[in-house]
Amino acid sequence: MKYGCCLNMLSRIPGGTGIEYLEIFRDCGYDYVELPLAEIMSLPKEEYDRLASRLYEAGIPCESCNNFFPPAMRLTGPTVDFGAVGDYVDRAVAAAGTLGARNIVFGSGGAKRVPEGFPKPEAYEQIVRLLRYAGTVASQHGITISIEPLRQAECNIINTFEEGVMLARDVGGTQVRVLADIYHLSEEREPASHIEEYGAYLSHIHFANPEGRVFPIMEDGSDAVYHDFCDAVLKAGYNGRVSCEAYTADVSKDAPRSLWLMQHYFEHNERR
């Protein structure tokens, strides 16, 4: 396994990337960081160059990007501009590749939320069309697109890992796969067994204490939830990236403790 962290969850600046925490995770022994693509794409060139330089100088890679699309970019509904969306995909995937990313997370609940009154089957087909194009572009950069199912409180379409797998199947090809997020899985009360059942589609992991979506630590009382989730991931044969996607009031304290816990649950279970 490789372990990383979604830095944007930690940023104290609205719309921030969280790059200010980069060295903390490097020094704790994390393998990579996950940065928000929509926020990166909004940076002026000078700030983007500084971010890229800081990554290079820190010596810890950005192997994954989350937040594929900005919330204001419509992906479903009657006002979708596929030309503008396609242009954004071209530029965003290229930028992620330049930073070294090999995975882009497609959650983007605000962008893909189905407008009230718009037929959901039509919205679904719009997402399929988008992902077929995004997968083609991603393949040119050696990147996988990971569909992130989001809880219903955040989006009204693609809410479970199982639904994400059905979407990936409809998209076809090998460049679009599915992310398993312990928080969203728990919120939707979806059985962890779905991860094992559809393990061939699993491409990325987001991890947290589902209670409060905070950094997971050994003393937080979520042993059963962690065990069931991690056990399903390992039974699925997954051995890729695991990103902590969570909040904390004390990054320096919780970053090393969470890395230890992730290693314990995934690697301890692996030895069973």
Question: What are the SSEs and their pairings?
Answer:
Layout: E1 2-5, H1 22-28, E2 33-36, H2 37-41, H3 45-58, E3 62-66, H4 82-99, E4 103-106, H5 109-112, H6 120-139, E5 144-147, H7 161-171, E6 176-181, H8 182-187, H9 193-197, E7 202-207, H10 223-235, E8 241-244, H11 251-271
Parallel strand pairs: 1-8, 2-3, 3-4, 4-5, 5-6, 6-7, 7-8
Description:
The protein is α/β, with parallel strands linked by helices and 272 residues long. It has one domain (2-271): TIM Barrel (Alpha-Beta Barrel). Helices cover 46% and strands 14% of the residues. The chain has helices at residues 22-28, 37-41, 45-58, 82-99, 109-112, 120-139, 161-171, 182-187, 193-197, 223-235, 251-271; strands spanning 2-5, 33-36, 62-66, 103-106, 144-147, 176-181, 202-207, 241-244. It has an eight-stranded parallel sheet. Helix 4 packs parallel to helix 6 and helix 6 (120-139) crosses helix 7 (161-171). The two termini are 16 Å apart. The model has no long low-confidence stretch (mean pLDDT 96).
